[in-house]
Structures are given as structure tokens and as C-alpha cells.
Write a structure and sequence with these properties.
The chain has 227 residues and is α/β, with parallel strands linked by helices. The protein has eleven helices and eight strands. Strands 3-2-1-4-7-6-8-5 form an eight-stranded mixed β-sheet, with helices on both faces. 41% of the residues are buried. The model has no long low-confidence stretch (mean pLDDT 94). Pfam families: Glycos_transf_2 (PF00535).
Length: 227
């Protein structure tokens, strides 16, 4: 059994997947399992990933479905769910091992959002403070969880959006998260492509609607996910 499995859900990431997986080869050399879960790419992403991962599998499109499929195949005692455009801090495996050995069952990293807009550092700081206060983690913060805790809550709920919030809430009922100050870096490409202020407003509305019981599938369509 591996100590850590990194699970990366992907969809049409051929332009960036080589670089994303190259960055993880040092972890892989230390025994970390690397699993790529493709949601139906049409650009050859699985073929490009095959040489740089321990396993490339397919799953129904949607991060929750893909991450659950990866978890089902993983051999790690701890699962780390990583977006393809997110970069882990150096020694992330050792950081997580230290946290878990101290008794924590799950956690996440602080995040920096890379890009040219002056608001992106402000947004990242607000995300980190909110997460530390509420205990809710986002997928951009590279959520990690022990296999036992993940299985105990039934994994990610099979919803089209807000799966990270739903998982955090389920885990919080039993375990406080480790809110690590070590930082991951994630791409601000979506923020800049769609407009930073427009994306802030959209995310506030979507999160509020989710808290009020809106259908995650409808929220995903508003977010711009393809069916």
C-alpha cells in the first residue's frame, strides 16, 4: 500500500498536462502514486498522460465522478485531490505525512492565484481566511484526506458542482481540518478570461444559491460547465 495517492481529474488538458505531471515526478520517485482520471477528453489528454502517471482511467464527466473513480483505484492510505492547473508546494508529501501522523484526518493548503490582475492575491487571501474560519475547503486548495475518513463519509457526493463544499461539510462533522499555511499555486486563467469582478459576483451567487438548496446541476450550467 502506498502512503499517498494523488488523483487528478482532467478534461481536454492536452496543452498543459505534460507540464502538470512533470512537476509531480519528484513525488512519484519517492513512491507517491499518481492517478489521472479523464472525463472524456477529445484532445488526446489520456495518451499524453500515460507515460507520466501510474494509472490513467476514464470516468463519467464531472469532478466528483472522476475523483471518486480515482479514489476507488487508489492504493494510498491518504488521498490528495489535485486540479491539473494547481501546483503543490515542495515536499507536499512530507508535509501531509507529518500532519496525518499527528492525528489529522483531512486538510488543505492555502492557495495563491497566479495571474496579472491585481485582485487575484486579494481573492486568494479571502479564500484562505474564509476556509480557516469555516473549515470549508475548495478544490483549488488541494484537499487531502485519509482513506478511512473518505470512505466513512461515502466519498464525494455525485453532484455537478460544489462537491468540494459538500465533502468538507461531511468531513467536518467528525474531524477538524488541517488548514496548512504552505501554499499551492493555481491558475487564474478562468478569472481573467471571464472577468475577475464578474467571476467574483457569479461565485458569490452560486454559493448562496447552493446554501439555499439550489440544484447543483443547474448551478453547474450557470457556472459554464458543458453537459
Amino acid at each position: 500500500m502506498k502512503a499517498l495517492s494523488v488523483i487528478i481529474p482532467v478534461l481536454d488538458e492536452a496543452a498543459t498536462i505534460d507540464a502538470a505531471l512533470d512537476r509531480l515526478q519528484a513525488l512519484r520517485a519517492r513512491g507517491v502514486e499518481l492517478i489521472v482520471v479523464d472525463g472524456g477528453s477529445s484532445d488526446g489528454t489520456p495518451d499524453r498522460a500515460a507515460a507520466l502517471a501510474d494509472m490513467v482511467i476514464g470516468a463519467p464527466r464531472g469532478r466528483a465522478h472522476q475523483m471518486n473513480a480515482g479514489a476507488a483505484q487508489a492504493s494510498g492510505r491518504v488521498l490528495l485531490f489535485l486540479h491539473a492547473d494547481t501546483v503543490l508546494p515542495a515536499g507536499a508529501d512530507r508535509i501531509i505525512a507529518g500532519v496525518v501522523s499527528a492525528g489529522r484526518q483531512w486538510g488543505r493548503f492555502d492557495v495563491d492565484i497566479d495571474g496579472g490582475h491585481w485582485m487575484l492575491p486579494v481573492i486568494a487571501a479571502a479564500m484562505n481566511r474564509r476556509s480557516r474560519f469555516t473549515g470549508i475547503a475548495t478544490g483549488d486548495q488541494a484537499i487531502f484526506v485519509t482513506r478511512a475518513a473518505f470512505d466513512a463519509v461515502g466519498g464525494y457526493p455525485p453532484i455537478a458542482l460544489m462537491e468540494d463544499i459538500a465533502l468538507s461539510r461531511a468531513l467536518l462533522r467528525a474531524h477538524a481540518p488541517a488548514c496548512l499555511r504552505a501554499r499551492v499555486h493555481t491558475s487564474g486563467r478562468r478569472w481573467e478570461r471571464h472577468g475577475v469582478w464578474r467571476t467574483i459576483w457569479l461565485m458569490w451567487r452560486l454559493r448562496a444559491a447552493y446554501r439555499l438548496g439550489a440544484d447543483p446541476a443547474a448551478l453547474a450550467r450557470r457556472y459554464g460547465y458543458r453537459p
